[in-house]
Design brief:
This protein is of the alpha+beta class and about 575 residues long. It is built from 16 helices and 18 strands. It has a domain of about 110 residues: Flavocytochrome C3, Chain A, domain 1 (Alpha-Beta Complex). The structure holds flavin-adenine dinucleotide.
Length: about 575
């Protein structure tokens, strides 16, 4: 074997050290002695959690879980795994208490009650906010890290995993490389957890660091993906990113067209207005711009002074952006700014059972690598799902690992995988940033991602398959840093193909998926998932119907019906 290869082994290998990965590690230690987290980012950076607001979905004591489930079934237009969602809401209370026990501060009102923000015009769902503003996510990262250090969880930064290795049907470890030196690495493991996030399109909302490598890791190992037709489409200021619209909208913020009209309230949704998911707002933004009424601005003038005071960032990256804006003579809370749609992350994920197990024995997925969402989103659910799924998956993966011998490991195949990947190093060719732009040109077209149609999706599919077949093989990685970027670009192209194929497979509009050629729900079938897998080297999709008979709520009202796109 190549003498440069580092070989490690562990009971549970967790790929990705974000919120979900840290929760998984914390709980896996209950069953096994050795847990290893690897992350392609700097050691202990903590993934997206470190930049988040720390808003958390939790029904507090006295609130009825069925009311919350009812909101979600309505909001998701019936496309809801009701059993999993109800269990998540119940567990959210436990994880919320865990956070407080770890020292986390959630914001309180003057009367001592928790400070909450209503979400998307829904009657019950509220996010509990963290304090101080701008440091909630940083604090959660620090609290989890302290717990991991106390448990002697091993952690490595600057390690990128490129392929999972199997022993027969079961996973037996992974290969990758050190992103600083380019040196190869093999990790043997009894169980492997994908805590990588499912990936996205490198947008400005602090998600440029996440790759779409998860899609390739999962598909090549034989796992299935679900809900890949759904993506989070956010809207952000044209200049500097700003987070917290899910709190600002309920406080009175709104979007205006070039005539100064509150187009959501006046035209598209007289009841909910702009206080909705970003996806509905961006749909209207595209229609307004098509009709010549762009650009779209974000109006914060109606937020009361106490609301502004509570949302003025005190620390973190938002404070930096606030300072940068002020240096340009712009105050976020008094000046008008242009906002634009931005496709961010896929909301699909790896298909798992309720404990994170995939169809590949020993392989688990957790957090945003798992399929939880259906395009529409309410603030705070992501960190809640990272904690609840991380907790349960950690226990399950730890128990699995403790019951198994270390599987046999195919070093020959692993070395070949490493050789193939490292062969890109030092080559001339297409640079990753140029490939990123090429892929983004396909997916950011509004008729591919916002108001989808068969014609546009089919053209986009032709283009992305051409890119994957004819351009990706000619990419260059002058050094190990660019090798990481190359793998991210390639993953982004793979993710885009999965997104387009799944979007073509859902021939209806529902939740976060809107087809201009199928603007209504398909009522001729029960709600279904679009599941994507690899067959003979090609992506294939099929439908899996939700077991509506087993669910407590039979959907009769649908959030999408609150909007009129004509
Ligand atoms: C600005 C901002 C504000 C937010 N605010 C909130 C909020 O208030 N409330 C809320 O609920 N959510 C919020 N979110 C979303 C939330 O933070 C994330 O969805 C959540 O933290 C995701 O956790 P995760 O562990 O699943 O994934 P991630 O945090 O994405 O972690 C995945 C990790 O895997 C690593 N990785 C990926 N691929 C590989 C590979 N091949 N090899 C090795 N490592 C790899 C990445 O480097 C990363 O560290 C916010 C997000 C942002 C960006």
């Amino acid at each position: 074997m190549n003498a440069n290869i580092t070989v490690l082994s562990t009971d549970v290998l967790i790929i990705g050290g974000g919120s979900a990965g840290m929760w998984t590690a914390k709980m896996a230690r209950r069953h096994v002695d050795d847990v290893l987290i690897v992350d392609k980012g700097p050691l202990d950076w903590g993934g997206l959690c470190s930049m988040s607001d720390g808003n958390f979905i939790v029904p507090h004591e006295g609130e009825n879980l069925m009311d919350w489930l009812d909101d979600i079934v309505y909001y998701y237009d019936g496309l809801c795994d009701q059993k999993e969602t109800l269990a998540t809401l119940a567990k959210a209370r436990e994880r919320f208490r865990d956070y407080e026990a770890m020292g986390h501060t959630f914001a309180r009102n003057p009367d001592g009650s928790y400070h909450t923000a209503p979400q998307r015009g829904l009657p019950h769902i509220k996010a509990t906010t963290s304090a101080p503003l701008g440091k909630g996510g940083q604090n959660m990262r620090r609290e989890l890290l302290t717990a991991l250090k106390a448990l002697n969880v091993r952690r490595m930064g600057n390690v990128m995993i490129t392929r999972l290795i199997k022993d027969g049907d079961a996973v037996s470890g992974a290969v990758g490389f050190f992103t600083r030196s380019g040196l190869p690495l093999i990790i043997r493991a009894r169980a492997v957890v994908l805590a990588t996030g499912i990936g996205g399109w490198k947008t400005s909302y602090h998600q440029n660091s996440i790759s779409s490598g998860c899609v390739e890791l999962a598909l090549t190992a034989g796992a299935k993906l679900r809900s890949m037709e759904f993506a989070g489409i956010w809207n952000t200021p044209e200049r500097f990113a700003w987070t917290g619209q899910s709190v600002l909208l309920p406080l009175g913020a709104r979007f205006l067209n070039s005539r100064g009209e509150d187009f959501m309230l006046n035209h598209y949704s007289p009841i909910i207005g702009s206080k909705t998911d970003t996806l509905y707002n961006v749909r209207a933004m595209v229609l307004e711009t098509r009709a010549g009424r762009g650009p779209i601005t974000f109006d914060v003038s109606r937020i009361p002074p106490e609301g502004i005071a509570s949302r003025r960032p005190e620390a973190g990256w938002m404070k930096l952006n606030d300072t940068k804006l002020k240096a340009k003579g712009i105050d976020f809370f008094t000046d008008t700014q242009v906002w634009v749609p931005q496709i961010q992350t896929s909301q699909g994920g790896v298909q798992t059972d309720s404990e994170g197990a995939t169809c590949v024995p020993g392989l688990y997925a957790v957090g945003t690598a798992q399929s939880h969402l259906v395009g529409v989103y309410f603030g705070g659910f992501s960190l809640c799902q990272a904690a609840t799924s991380g907790h349960d998956t950690g226990l399950a993966a730890g128990a699995y690992a403790s019951s198994k011998e270390m599987p046999a490991f195919d070093f020959g195949f692993a070395e070949k995988c490493l050789d193939d990947e490292l062969a890109h190093l030092g080559r001339q060719g297409i640079m990753p940033k140029d490939m990123d732009v090429t892929v983004l040109e396909v997916v950011t077209a509004s008729d591919v991602s916002i108001l989808k149609s068969a014609g546009a999706l089919s053209r986009a599919l032709d283009r992305i398959t051409e890119i994957r077949a004819e351009l990706i093989p000619y990419m260059a990685a002058p050094d190990s840093h660019y090798l990481g970027k190359l793998i991210e670009s390639r993953g982004m192209a793979t993710l885009t193909e999965a997104y387009i194929r799944s979007s073509l497979a859902r021939t209806e509009s529902r939740a976060g998926h809107f087809r201009e050629d199928f603007p209504l729900r398909d009522e001729s079938t029960p709600p279904y998932w679009v599941v994507l897998s690899m067959e003979d080297g090609k992506m294939k999709t099929h439908r899996e119907y939700l077991p509506m008979d087993e669910y407590p709520i039979k959907p009769t009202r649908f959030y999408m019906d609150q909007f009129n796109w004509s």
